[in-house]
Amino acid sequence: MNAIDNVTKPIATAYHKGKIYQWNGQEFLELEPSDLIKLPISEEAHEAVKSVRKVVSQIVGTRVELSMVASAMLLAALEVTDMPERVKQYGARIFGA
Description:
Helices cover 51% and strands 6% of the residues.
């Protein structure tokens, strides 16, 4: 058997539609479901979250999960009364309008 035969043969493991798998170097493992939602953000926003995490981590004395910091920041944004205007300005800056 040559290398190309391996590529064309069906995989013996049964995979299920809607499940997420990750390659561990030897095989695909099913990932546990998560309540976290993946949300694409700009690199600028990602850096802002990391910056806030650094400060929070220094205050609490342990490294804080990035998703917790991002969630707290988004929830705090609900209290910013001019958020619609800020979103509009950010979009204009990003898209050059």
